[in-house]
Design a protein that fits this description.
alpha/beta, GMP Synthetase, Chain A, domain 3, Rossmann fold, 2 domains, three-stranded mixed β-sheet, 10 helices, binds adenosine-5'-triphosphate, binds magnesium ion
Length: about 350
């Protein structure tokens, strides 16, 4: 007996998928039906195949087809949905429990270092409360273009220095304070991630806000993040908060792999004496912190007045610069690539 495709669809309309408040056919989760002698095969679009409720849907669909067609082979192929993130190879989150340690600076210059090595790079400013990517890339006031496809609106990232940029800061008036509550902030993040047409890119570097709150949880639970880069400064007071962030990411329920620790402002190098290193806050603290956390040490970034002024002027310091600071960021980038 060869079942008819029409009948298969009719029967599958009895399988309800609660998260979408619909049955799997109307929710457009059933794709590419094939039928043969005592055989039904189709793809079922599911965001997370290992999720218990999704396993239940697969079982349910099998059972209902067997109940109707008797003892036939039912082959259901769970398939991830095609989204704007499907062509993004790796998401890297740059995070820290502490504010002001240089997350954005490290994220931006890491993105530049990756792009310099020939990778296709995107950058998302997830700091909904204090976006800094538009300032650091000099794209303040530039708004992403939008287009409609299949009834949905997508945003085209702003390109600068060969990097595709998106930030909530591009869509709101910078003079308006963003007093957003958790659910609004996380839905803004989800929108920026999924409704941006990233195209094919190798790395999406995400600049995280400080702390261990809603945004961190949202990213961890809804997106497949390849790894996080944790930023600290050499001071012990910074480390207390940094440890909290690292432990959050290592926690089972959150589960973003921690790639390692970057020690920012590790030493001071005056720009007129590029070979000098003054360890103002003590030497080797980053390595010690990394050891204590049981994570790799990714490298030390010097404190350099040009890093700060370049960020303010809207050109990442390492862009087109080949001095020791750029070398330090490139070393971190190489480690990240190696670990991923
Ligand atoms: N290595 C460095 N040398 C000199 N200045 C630096 C360095 N790293 C960061 N800064 C400066 O320190 C300030 C804070 O850096 P940045 O904004 O990157 O920190 P952040 O952790 O992202 O802060 P926030 O928690 O507010 O997001 C900025 O003015 C930046 O230019
Ligand atoms: Mg920041």
């Amino acid at each position: 007996m060869i079942p008819s495709k029409q009948k298969v669809l009719e029967i599958l309309k009895d399988v309800v998928y609660f998260p979408k408040g619909s049955n799997i056919v109307d929710a457009e989760m059933v794709k590419d039906i094939e039928v043969g002698e005592n055989l039904v095969r189709f793809k079922l679009v599911l965001d997370d195949v290992d999720d218990e409720k999704n396993k239940f849907v697969v079982e349910n669909a099998k059972k209902i087809l067997n109940d109707n067609f008797g003892d036939i082979d039912v082959d259901i192929i769970p398939t991830a949905p095609v989204t704007m993130l499907s062509k993004v190879k790796h998401i890297i989150a740059v995070a820290s429990g502490k504010g002001g340690v240089g997350k954005s600076t490290v994220a931006v210059n890491l993105a530049v270092a990756l792009a310099t090595q020939g990778f296709r790079v995107g950058m998302l400013d997830a700091d909904i409360y204090g976006p800094s990517v538009p300032i650091m890339f000099g794209t303040e006031g530039v708004q992403p273009e939008c287009y409609d496809k299949d009834g949905k609106t997508y945003m085209v990232p702003v390109q600068k220095f060969g990097i595709k940029l998106m930030s909530i800061g591009m869509m709101v008036d910078p003079s308006q304070p963003l007093i957003w509550r958790g659910p609004m902030a996380t839905s803004a993040l989800t929108q920026l991630m999924t409704e941006t047409d990233w195209g094919e890119i190798d790395f999406l570097v995400v600049d995280m806000p400080p702390g261990t709150g809603d945004i961190q949880l949202c990213l961890a639970q809804n997106f497949k993040v390849s790894g996080s880069v944790i930023v600290t400064t050499p001071q012990k007071v910074a480390f207390a908060d940094v440890r909290r962030a690292a432990n959050m990411f290592k926690h089972k329920g959150v589960s973003i792999p921690v790639l390692g620790l970057v020690e920012n402002m590790a030493y001071f190098t005056p720009s007129d004496m590029p070979d000098k290193k003054y360890y103002i806050f003590g030497q080797g603290h980053g390595k010690e912190f990394a050891e204590e956390l049981g994570i790799p040490f990714l490298g030390a970034i010097p404190m350099d007045e040009n890093i700060a002024s370049a960020g303010d002027k809207g050109t990442p310091y390492t862009f087109g610069n080949f001095g020791p600071v750029t070398a330090a960021f490139e070393k971190v980038a190489r480690k990240v690539i190696e670990l991923i």
